[in-house]
Amino acid sequence: MSEETKTIMLCCAAGMSTSMLVKRMQEAASQKKVVAKIFACPAAEVSEKLEQENINCILLGPQVRYMLNDIKKKVGDKPIKVDVINMQAYGMMNGEKVLEQGLSLID
Which residues form the PTS EIIB type-3 domain (predicted)? Predict the structure, then answer.
């Protein structure tokens, strides 16, 4: 993996439920020596964040999985992968598993 920063955006209904998961993913990235910027945002702010940030992948909380195609349309032809967070990993707040999911989309 290259040393360039990987930017992973988590997206959920209000951006609140993913904040603990972000913290756990950051801890996992630090342990694995992965240079990553991981943050959460509410689904309503996705378009804005796509303009402001250099995002590599977007992971949706399982509760907003119905927005997957809508988010993919917003991404358009940008080289950004979009997926739904594994429900079990999300429920367990398993930062390492969700980080691996995001990194596997990027690489």
Answer: 5-107
Residue 52 lies in a domain: yes
| Residues assigned a catalytic role | 12
Spatial separation of the C-alpha atoms in residues 101 and 106, rounded to whole Å: 9
Residue 1 lies in a domain: no
- Whether residue 2 is predicted with pLDDT greater than 60 in this model: the reply is no
Determine the structural domain holding residue 88 and report its residue range. Answer: 6-106
Half-sphere CA count of 16, side-chain side, radius 13 A? 2
pLDDT higher than threshold 50 for residue 1: no
> Which residue type, as a one-letter code, is found at position 27?
E
Angle between helices 95-106 and 19-31 (to 10 degrees): 70
Identify how many contiguous H helices and E strands the chain contains and give both numbers: 5, 4
Distance in angstroms between the alpha carbons of the first and the last residue of the chain: 8
Considering the domain boundaries, does residue 24 fall inside one?
yes
pLDDT at 104: 97
pLDDT above 70: residue 98: yes
